[in-house]
Design a protein that fits this description.
This protein is of the alpha+beta class. Helix content is 31%, strand content 30%.
């Protein structure tokens, strides 16, 4: 069965909205910084840190994409953006965007480890609220 993690863009987050293109840019940035780390260590760390290709289908264009790997330890991770309505303490409702990271049934333990790593990276960059695959919550924003 597929499992999901969510990065919610709460009012204290740096951004209240995000696009698929912006998330792809963050992945390119991640790939770039890990490659630089590998260069400093004189090791090809970039391929190990990000063993995926970013792919998108016509049907999901602008709404979701997936990370695909031909490596034996990795298969796929799905990433999408959506909105939900959240009820505030005072009873009002507000719309909140979130990033959904899905591990499909064919995903491996390696995919889950990488997905957790990517979730933490994205949540930290966006100062979001991370709901992990095991339903635990991590807060990367400043609480008031």
């Amino acid at each position: 069965m597929a499992v999901n993690a969510f990065i919610k863009l709460v009012p204290s987050s740096d951004k209240q909205t995000i696009t698929i293109a912006e998330i792809k840019e963050l992945f390119h940035y991640y790939k770039n910084i890990t490659a630089k780390t590998g260069n400093q260590l004189n090791w090809e760390y970039g391929d190990s840190a990000f063993p995926y290709e970013i792919k998108e289908t016509e049907k999901s264009k602008g709404k979701a994409f997936y990370l695909h790997s031909d490596h034996e330890r990795y298969k796929a991770i799905l990433i999408g953006v959506d909105k939900e309505f959240v009820k505030e303490e005072d009873g009002t409702e507000r719309e909140q965007e979130y990033i959904q990271i899905t591990l499909p049934e064919q995903s491996t333990h390696g995919d889950k480890g990488k997905a957790n790593e990517f979730c933490k990276f994205l949540a930290k960059k966006l100062k979001g609220e991370l709901h992990l695959f095991n339903e635990r919550v991590m807060y990367y924003y400043h609480k008031k």
